Backbone:
């Protein structure tokens, strides 16, 4: 006997998407406490109205005319004022479609968000959960790959730090002294500035070390759902420590 196939009801979709939203809501950039915003690069949030979201879904499916999105693109252009910025939603960036989504054109920004399965999935979740959606325009900041680290907090404790770009060894982290120094700087930053205003006890935050200055907080992600980077697994993360790609000799 062939089982009956039933599509979920509107109420079921709302419940499922609301539950998914709740898991990561505190990490979404529109929900950040003001103290977190002050630790990060400048960000402008452009609200996505319902009719613009509807057109984005239609565009993803192949529609060619976008009157509402044309108006939105002009609004984004005005907000950027020819200053190229990093494009993302309040949830995630379209890095599956464009690894470096930096532009000064509103139409380009919208095109990337429409083409990314990550952002389209997030828009669908936000729409069905009846939660606000924003395009986040983030100021460009030059960050050396070796300066970017991913930090893991569980139960209100900083338990692990990882080399963020882990495709190859980085010379900086071959030095135990450098790893110890980085841990000390990040832990001090986390204790004094990141954790006190945090609304959650389990989370992942990315930072860039900026010489002798205060680290720059790049973004916040949900614990357990974010890439463990150089640690490879969350089992390793929960053992704690500083994870990096080791090399038999110094690497660039």
Residues:
């Amino acid at each position: 006997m062939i089982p009956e196939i039933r599509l979920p009801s509107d109420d079921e979709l709302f419940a499922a998407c609301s539950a998914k939203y709740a898991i990561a809501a505190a990490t979404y950039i529109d929900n950040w406490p003001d103290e977190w915003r002050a630790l990060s690069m400048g960000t402008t949030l452009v609200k996505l109205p319902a009719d613009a979201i509807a057109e984005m879904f239609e565009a993803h499916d192949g529609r060619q005319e976008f009157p509402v999105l044309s108006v939105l693109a002009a609004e984004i252009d005005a907000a950027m004022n020819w200053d190229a910025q990093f494009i993302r939603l309040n949830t995630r960036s379209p890095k599956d479609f464009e690894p470096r989504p930096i532009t000064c054109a509103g139409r380009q920004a919208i095109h990337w968000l429409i083409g990314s399965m990550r952002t389209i999935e997030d828009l669908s979740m936000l729409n069905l959960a009846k939660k606000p959606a924003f395009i986040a325009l983030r100021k460009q900041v030059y960050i050396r790959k070796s300066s970017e680290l991913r930090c893991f907090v569980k139960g209100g404790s900083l338990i692990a730090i990882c080399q963020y770009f882990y495709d190859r060894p980085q010379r900086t982290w071959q030095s135990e002294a450098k790893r110890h120094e980085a841990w000390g700087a990040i832990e001090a930053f986390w204790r004094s500035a990141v954790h006190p205003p945090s609304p959650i006890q389990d989370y992942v935050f990315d930072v860039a070390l900026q010489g002798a200055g205060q680290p720059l907080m790049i973004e916040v992600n949900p614990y357990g759902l974010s890439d463990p980077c150089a640690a490879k697994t969350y089992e390793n993360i929960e053992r704690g420590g500083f994870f990096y790609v080791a090399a038999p000799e110094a690497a660039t």
Summary: The chain has two domains: 10-139, 145-243. The first strand starts at residue 43 and ends at 47. Helices lie at 10-24, 34-39, 50-60, 67-80, 106-115, 117-128, 176-194, 234-239. The mean pLDDT is 95.
